[in-house]
Amino acid sequence: MKISTYFLALLCPVILLSSCKKNTDEVTADTKSTFSIEFENQVNGSPLVLNTTSYKNAKGEDFKINVFKYYVSNIKLSKADGTTYLIPESYFLIDASKAESTNITLKDVPTGDYTKIEYTIGVDYARNFAGAQTGALDPINGMFWTWNSGYIFVKLEGTSPQSAATGNALTFHIGGVTDPNNTIRTFTTEINAANPLRVRTDGKPNMHFIVNAAALFTGKTDISFSTLYFTMGGANSVIVANNYANGLFRLDHIHN
Amino acid sequence: MLFLSIALMYACSKNEDEVTPEEKKITFSVPANFPAPAYNFEDNKLSNAGFTLGKKLFYEGRLSADKSVSCGSCHQQFAAFTQLDHKVSHGVNNCQGKRNTPPLFNLAWQKAFFWDGGVKNIETSPLNAITDACEMGTNIETIIAFLKNTAPYPDLFKQAFGSTEINSQVILKSIAQFTAVLVSGNSKYDKVIRKESGIAFTSTELAGYNLFKEKCTSCHAEPFFTDFSYRNNGLDLVSTDEGRSHITGAASDFGKFRVPTLRNIEYTSPYMHDGRFYSLDEVLEHYNSGVKASTNLDAQLKTGIPLNTTEKEQIKAFLKTLTDHEFIKNTLYSES
Question: Where is the Copper-binding protein MbnP-like domain (chain A) (predicted)?
Fold first, then answer.
């Protein structure tokens, strides 16, 4: 009896494993390694300095930034042959006030040369409505709407003389996942094939992205702070998301 | 499967002499006349320790800003976990909220929470009450700090989740182990439907049930006595509370609220999203003669629901068969 029970216990995982059908489009490698991504926050080419430095939007209006936080999630790498690797549980909150958050490390990535990277600016649909989360998605991070479930994908708070709000406040809390006000955007960038992201057991490359906070206010629609200075989801958040969808991130270089 | 086989091994090798002290195993049971739940504890394994901790947190007044208000303050068991005699929620510093406290039961079947359906998961629902200035008026950081420094909480978290680490996730998961277990499915109505021996409607209750099926179930659908939709039932020409449109941003949702369950309705007075009606008589009279032609009035209420005195009494008699005395008196759910 006892032997047969043990045998059964051993057999079960074997069956389980053999029943897994291999997805041919998925990157496979025997070895895994690590790479990192640095997000350098800027405003139109100048370093982002919170609270003190004044910047100009595309309309030429002055503004300052006090808070700048955003989610990067579901990071997916592609090889030249079209195979892809979605990094599991990749949810990161980048906070301009926390230097350590601007450099993220991706572990257990199959080794290989990657020529494309894409990720969600924000959080995928399912996690917005999921149960209690931890880590980057912990509501304690101040990026979760408690009265209308869902994450704030990009949060920019600051001031502008043009804003009619109390204290000339700018409040841009971009989020929402249901149509017509879905603000989930995916950013994709090709990597120069001559210098791909080389994930090696003996090499841990670093990707360097420039993040332009001013991209919230230009791109598709130039925003004037005299008319739009407050949004927490809804149609105006969609305008901002459409702006930053392409302009927020730019791959600057890779240190292999 | 591996776990199953390991569990099987344990089951086989269990020493019959090792009997642990008797403790009633907390279970989540689905009444035979209910469908499969939306929340099934898949990512939040139900345990006695988790339930016990969740219940303790639910009744812990020290979590609120002025240490006076617990979840249980506004969700009282004898009122099927709503607040008796309060039109709207009554929070810290005697602040009055703007909506009537919803009762708490059968939440595992609910996919959206609160009168406007803004919250989509039972686990994240308490965040609203915790942070609302007119409810508990605090924040998760403060609560975590309190729990870390207050015995016996670190031990209770260790028993429930295997670690003394306290974060928002384990707090919310433990509360959900309590709130999702609150199942009310043992009313007289349930027993009649399940054809339990010796239980039958009286002739008045039966007449009420038939009337109810004719006039009410298009919104208050069995077995939950709500179809979980959002509707405007003509309380005001222009609602002072935007309701569902606050969540969707759609003008067509202005003044709509989630159809409330009618289970335990005998004990959940006052009624409506703002608690304006104190008695079922007032509620039925509203449908009979008080429905106002608001912009988003539900199509089925255009002419109200005409009810004569006899019909009202019959419907009321039926509604009282929805009271689940076992649930309301179950000491497992009581503050201990």
Answer: 33-225
